[in-house]
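Researcher: Go.
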Amino acid sequence: MTDSELRKFIISGSVDVQSPEDDAQEEVDAAAEMELRHVSVPVESHGSRLDKALAGLVPEFSRNYLQQLIEAGGVSVKGLKTVKTSAKVKAGDELSIELRPTPQSQAFKPEAMALNIVYEDAHLLVINKPAGLVVHPAPGNWSGTLLNGLLAYDPQASFMPRAGIVHRLDKDTSGLMVVARQRQTMDQLVGMIAARTVSREYIALAHGAWQGAKTRQVEASIGRDPRNRLRMAVVDLEKTSGKTASTVISLMGNAEKHCLVKCKLHTGRTHQIRVHMAFLDHPLVSDALYGGAPAGDMTRQALHACRLAFTHPATGEPMEFKSAPPPDLLRAMDVLGLRYNCFV
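Model: Structure:
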């Protein structure tokens, strides 16, 4: 196994192993890529659980992965398949391990795709992400992500954590993202985002006519919703874990039943704009997770990252990028009687 292949096998957290229900071609492919490794139990591991002994013998793999590999019949002790992770081993026992690719281990591979690159230099890229593109591999989306596209576009991206991705947009959110091409640049951008010196602005189409002040600063902490772990919520930090979150929301247009707003992030919490808008009783159009309903033929959450500004980490030059709303969002505005003015 080469070093690059080994990096692809290294995993953390929960994993899935190939199941007997996979079709024949997948089984053939997996068998072709499988590595059979033979190890001997050392004296210091005598009497240990099988999964614990293996974790010490093949430390490049997580114990969680090895446990699932054992349960899937991928480990033999003295020539016999053993599916109990808690089975005790003895010093000198010969173990055979079938190191099989998992969805996670194969996720970080190049996949050629069209990327809308609006700026590029040796240090970074600025990309205009379309709605529907997942940024990073995750359960249910182990391929076809922006990360896969970056690995195909720039071979050096394989040597960068997360291929240089320093911040994310939700799958159904469109718009601007900055991606690092060098490790030093990545570290600097991460620090700039943490220090709130990267300006990120979004436009959002929401339910309900806007009332009151045209600009509101929402200071409401966000954490995992205790009633629904699949979503986030505004929380009381004295009662529930979470993080402070700050968004400035400005009215751009008003209609009888909907409004168009610009949102400027001062923090970058998961689903921050979606949660804060729902907290104000203005859930985003088509954002079913937070109470939004379809409107204006919009089939995804009506959120677009329209402006990105920062100081270039290497040159010190001020950088600013703008992105007009995509056609589906412009069409929804028109249907709902709202107009987009980029100068607001």
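Model: The longest strand covers residues 199-207.
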